[in-house]
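Backbone geometry:

***
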Amino acid sequence: MKLLKVLLTLALVLLTEISAVHSQHRGDEICETLPSQIHLIKEEYDELGRLQRTCNGEVQVNKCEGMCNSQVQPSVITPTGFLKECYCCRESFLRERLVTLTHCYDPDGGRLTGAEDSSMDIRLREPAECKCLKCGDFSR
């Protein structure tokens, strides 16, 4: 009888906790897609592995930044005794973009000025949209 009372009390506490966590689970999340500037360096090699040129430049890209709610609660079902739900602010959609680097140098550090060698086009993928998503879920 005492064990049953303890179990009922534990169940009531769990239900209260679940209800409290659920009601605030999405309320104070802030996950944004923000502009950012990075310095990008790209090297180009020939078929024998020798450095041909190095190009660099400042590039505007999007980044995901923010805070997402996660929770840990007691559980009689899981082996650890706790149910963990972790959420991270990360990209929900990536877009591909073509970027041109305009500062190019030969292997000796000399600036390249020829029409063909003075710039380099690079394809990069950046976040187009950010959301709170379950951590470690890369199935998209």
Observations:
- Confidence is low (pLDDT under 50) at residues 4-25.
- Strands lie at 30-45, 51-67, 71-74, 82-85, 87-101, 103-105, 120-134.
- Helices lie at 2-24.
